[in-house]
Design a protein that fits this description.
With 565 residues, the protein is α/β, with parallel strands linked by helices. The protein contains 22 helices and nine strands. Strand 1 and strand 2 form a beta hairpin. It is globular, with a radius of gyration of 26 Å.
């Protein structure tokens, strides 16, 4: 808010004036609300367009059974005995919420799941706005939000990644709570409890949520450092308060996780947690998939796998701003390091006081930096098993968007002098992305940037439609085909949807009275997908296919009665 002397009264009195900064701040808020509103409407209207992703079959089974654990006063053990193995090592709070809403029969259960998943995903993205404002500045929040929504890989997954999206939600709000907490010299109890609840929710979603403790402890340690630098021994009381608030936040987090995660309730909670953590870190899943055109195994990933996937899947503008933001932060870190070394040479340890104070004062920014790059570093160092693109680190993309927003703010002096050209480029780039996403719908998550060759150039070189989301599109085309031919009126066709061990469950996607077949030889039609080309080697005949940018992502094959036999 600008300060200006009031003209004409001769008193020299200075008071706040509503100026450009105030107007810009409110303009950004209005634009953020507009963007969120438009995204909300589009998401809810199109939620029914998405089919069931392969992981949604088992989470739809997990949710009601986890809910039964609580409803039966902890006696119904079906979630540990009759669901897909090891699913109980994920926290079920989101799946229970979906099951509860689905029981209201407000709409088709699949549509309900996708609508709720999208709502939580959008809420998770909304958290980047205050985080970016607090750590970068005004307009950074709008920038980060826009970059997230224009990333097709992220936007598409918001509807049907049943564990990764709730985790993104919990991690985004945990990071915001921690940023707010560390900005205070001694955090309030309200913020302490909110941080405990949010981080507990993250832990109760996926074991990786425990990394929020590192964010919290690191940030609060810098709070303690600032208290010591400001008050010396007189700050010991403040140090005790900081330590108590940190420990209480961690305690609340674990109580929340235990309350929401039945697996932790069936034994020693910490031992149960570490059992789940050890299970997922080196996950015993090994299969081959293409990565930048190279055959790669899930359990033998190159160290550059995650960065390489992000380079291929983030939009070009996002990447450019991200690299600029990284360069800005590296420059700031290098400048701080030079200042620290210079002070150490000149005055010894005593001379580090000013640079230590600067470090402590930047703790909120450091929390976001760690949230953006820390999880990626941990996964690389652990040599974790990863697959399906980078859906396991979907939650870092909003944090990377904040770093990218920092890159944009570094360009503002130039943009103010030459606004037209960059504005035109931004509008054109956004328009191209939006048109691409419209063409891809409802397969937005297969979007690839020009560095990867776009969707057409990336086809066969990357694992694109790993959720087999083109299969529901093929079913809709088959419905139209059979309706037009007027066949199978009294004897419904037997349709096999190739989904890898879930063919018997595919009937939930049918909108006709068809039979879900599991035997290739008995099927009248086969729906194959990029990951599951089960018609290869059979006598079935290709009759139609779902394409995007000239590349097939699902095929419809006719067999037996489908061929008129």
């Amino acid at each position: 808010m600008a300060l200006e002397q009031v003209d004409g009264d001769g008193s020299g009195f200075v008071r706040p004036k509503v100026g450009l900064a105030f107007a810009a701040r409110h303009a950004e808020t209005l634009l953020v609300l507009l963007v969120l509103s438009v995204a909300l409407v589009i998401g809810l209207v199109t939620a029914a367009d998405y089919g069931v992703s392969t992981d949604e079959f088992n989470t739809d089974d997990y949710g009601p059974k986890a809910l039964a654990w609580y409803a039966s006063a902890f006696t119904d053990r079906s979630q540990f005995e009759t669901v897909e193995e090891y699913l109980w090592m994920y926290g079920p709070w989101f799946q229970m919420l979906v099951a509860a809403v689905q029981s209201l029969e407000l709409a088709n259960p699949i549509t309900v799941r996708h609508a709720i998943t999208f709502l939580f995903g959008l809420a998770g993205l909304a958290a980047v706005v205050p985080i970016a404002r607090l750590t970068v500045g005004y307009w950074a929040g709008l920038t980060a939000l826009a970059l997230c929504l224009l990333t097709g890989y992220l936007y598409g997954n918001l509807f049907f990644a049943p564990i990764d999206v709730p985790f993104l939600f919990a991690m985004s709000w945990s990071t915001l709570a921690i940023v707010l907490m560390v900005r205070q010299e001694v955090p309030s109890w309200r913020l302490t409890l909110a941080t405990g609840l949010a981080t507990g929710l993250a832990i109760a979603t996926r074991t990786g949520g425990v990394i929020t403790h590192a964010y919290l402890v690191g940030g609060m340690s810098l709070c303690a450092l600032e208290a010591l630098l400001r008050h010396g021994r007189a700050g010991y009381g403040q140090l005790r308060q900081i330590a108590v608030h940190t420990l209480v936040a961690i305690l609340v987090a674990w109580l929340t996780a235990i309350a929401l995660w039945p697996w932790l309730q069936t034994g020693n909670p910490l031992m149960r947690f570490f059992e789940a953590y050890r299970h997922f870190a080196p996950l015993d899943t090994s299969f081959e998939f293409p990565n930048w055109g190279r055959p790669t195994f899930t359990d033998k990933l190159p160290p550059w796998y995650i960065p390489g996937q992000l380079v291929a899947r983030l939009p070009e503008g996002f990447l450019a701003l991200l690299l600029l933001g990284i360069a800005v932060w590296i420059g700031a870190a290098a400048s701080w390091t030079r200042a620290a070394l210079g002070a150490l040479r000149r005055s010894g340890v005593v001379g580090l006081r000013p640079v230590a104070a600067e470090l402590a004062g930047s703790r909120a920014v450091l929390v976001v930096s760690v949230a953006a790059f820390g999880p990626i570093g941990v996964l690389i160092l652990q040599g974790s098993t990863l697959y399906d693109g980078v859906r396991h680190v979907l939650f870092v993309i909003p944090m990377l968007a904040i770093v990218a927003a920092r890159g944009l703010t570094s360009l503002l002096p130039f943009l103010r002098r030459f606004p037209m050209v960059p504005a035109a480029l931004a509008v054109a780039h956004t328009a191209v992305i939006v048109v691409t996403l419209v063409i891809l719908h409802p397969l937005e998550y297969i979007a690839m940037n020009s560095l990867a060759g776009g969707v057409a150039g990336a086809y066969g070189r990357f694992d694109l439609d790993y959720w087999s989301m083109a299969a529901p599109e093929a079913l809709r085309r088959l419905e139209s085909r059979i309706d037009a031919e007027g066949r199978f009126a009294g004897d419904p066709p037997r349709v096999l949807v190739c989904l890898g061990w879930r063919e018997q469950l595919a009937g939930v996607m049918f909108r006709r009275n068809w039979i879900a077949e599991t035997d290739l030889q008995k099927a009248d039609y086969l729906i194959t997908t990029e990951r599951w080309p089960c018609a290869n080697g059979t006598s079935a005949v290709l009759v139609d296919e779902v394409t995007r940018f000239g590349r097939p992502f699902a095929q419809i094959y006719a067999n037996r009665r489908g061929l008129g036999e």
